[in-house]
Specification:
single chain; mainly alpha
Length: about 450
């Protein structure tokens, strides 16, 4: 019986997810059962058990699975939903030890584009504190000079402009269709740009623009994966995109990537890390146009709100308002266009919603929804549900049902796992008022459209 999990099949792949887990941690079978036994007091720590799990198809008992999941940082809900052995985190792990060089940025992109889209794990894989370390490294290091050495055909500005001009369309598709519909497209575009960066030659300026395109495509692919519920995939895209932004020497786009990572950490219930990453994003954007400063400041305020730190949240919202008041005075990059007055109001509302200041939340959401452009139905559905939750807390069941009813068609049409989850949670709250006619009518609508 082999002790170490280095056993692989002839194609170089581990024959069982548990073999990958053991190899990654250098665990013998005995190490594995000892780890589980620490969490399960009545388990006999015999290595034969683990060998049967990996080689004979024996399914561990529930207590043993939960104990292993706790050790690996996998939520119990994933264990229940996916079952054995699908919940095991088997797959490539992010190499966060890479230096912040041009070669490392290219390597990170090459190992992400085309591969990350296949990673469907719904939980983060980076250990606690890793994202903060990476964010602080990004903040403190100077970008490398883009290598213009001859590799293949020379890329000119015409091709780069064509790639840049495709970005607004991809972003718009994300706003309209949700992440599940866009992540494959963004990944394919990222693969194309990565191949150009790896196999072509270009000037310093063209190289920086190409890395900028890669950074934004990685961010879009990451956000789309996050929206679709694939957290490990999103994590990989965000990390590759951050390195690309560093290679491009673009602090603002890097800050925007960190802003997205911060919200993902909030979603993963890691609020302290979310705050640290949001703070690094704002620090990195200090010299950016006012619109970007407002964007980063309100995200940091939201991270404080998650922690219940109302005074610090309010202090930052004052700064965000001052920056937003100057947003139209200074030109900003194209990717900032979504952060208009409607989005700003929604993000302020998110802070007050977290602080349970429902009157203020309703005020800001009312403004946001009045200004929300028709071409962003996914966001509109989100903010309708936020407002429904708010007015329900204020005691208005009818208004809450009306708002949810307005959101349901967009939720049904878009592939946004986050919005569907919001709808399920909100419907559970409304079901406490199941005798109310509007609730019964809404329940029927939801069943019809979301089935």
């Amino acid at each position: 019986m082999p002790e170490m999990a280095r056993r692989q099949d002839h194609d170089g792949f581990f024959t069982h997810p548990l073999a990958f887990v053991r190899a990654e941690r250098s665990w013998t079978y005995q190490d594995l059962v000892n780890v589980i036994a620490r969490h399960v007091g009545n388990m006999a720590a015999r290595r034969e058990k683990a060998w049967r799990w990996e080689n004979w198809g024996v399914v561990p008992d529930e207590d043993s699975q939960y104990a292993l999941a706790r050790e690996l940082g996998v939520p119990h809900e994933q264990v229940r939903r996916l079952g054995w052995p699908a919940w095991l985190p088997a797959g490539d792990r992010l190499n966060v030890e890479l230096p912040w060089t041009l070669e490392a940025a290219l390597s990170s992109l090459d190992h992400t584009a085309g591969a990350a889209v296949l990673d469907r794990r719904a939980f983060l894989t980076l250990s606690a504190g890793t994202a903060v370390t990476v964010a602080n490294q990004w903040l403190s290091l100077e970008p490398p000079r883009v290598d213009a050495a001859l590799r293949g055909g020379m890329i000119d500005s015409t091709l780069v402009e064509a790639l840049e001009q495709r970005l607004p369309t991809i972003r718009q598709m994300q706003y309209a269709l949700g992440g599940g519909s866009v992540r494959n497209l963004a990944d394919a575009e990222l693969r194309l740009v990565t191949d150009l960066l790896s196999r072509s030659s270009y000037t310093q300026q063209i190289g920086e623009r190409l890395f900028n395109v890669a950074a934004e495509l990685g961010r879009v692919a990451g956000w789309s994966s996050f929206d679709a519920g694939f957290h490990a995939s999103a994590e990989r895209y965000f990390m590759a995109a951050l390195r690309a932004s560093h290679a491009a020497g673009d602090r603002a786009i890097g800050a925007n990537i960190l802003k997205c990572m911060s919200l993902q950490l909030v979603d993963a219930q890691r609020p302290d890390e979310a705050l640290a990453v949001a703070t690094a994003a704002r620090d990195g954007a200090k010299q950016a146009p006012p619109r970007i400063i407002a964007m980063m400041t309100v995200r940091e305020a939201r991270a404080h709100a998650v922690l219940g730190e109302a005074m610090e949240c309010e202090r930052l919202l004052v700064k965000a308002e001052a920056a937003m008041s100057r947003a139209d005075d200074v030109e900003s990059p194209g990717w900032t266009s979504y952060f208009d007055k409607a989005e700003y109001c929604a993000q302020v509302a998110a802070c007050y919603l977290l602080l349970r200041r429902h009157q203020a939340t309703d005020h800001w959401l009312s403004q946001s929804l009045n200004l929300q452009p028709a071409e962003r139905p996914v966001d509109r559905a989100t903010y309708l549900m936020w407002r429904a939750k708010t007015v329900l807390e204020l005691g208005d069941v009818d208004h809450a049902c009306t708002l949810v009813s307005e959101a349901v068609p967009s939720i049904a049409a878009a592939r946004s796992a986050r919005n569907r989850r919001r709808l399920v949670n909100l419907q559970a709250k409304l079901n406490a008022h199941h005798q109310h006619p509007a609730v019964a009518q809404l329940d029927e609508q939801v069943r019809t459209l979301i089935a």
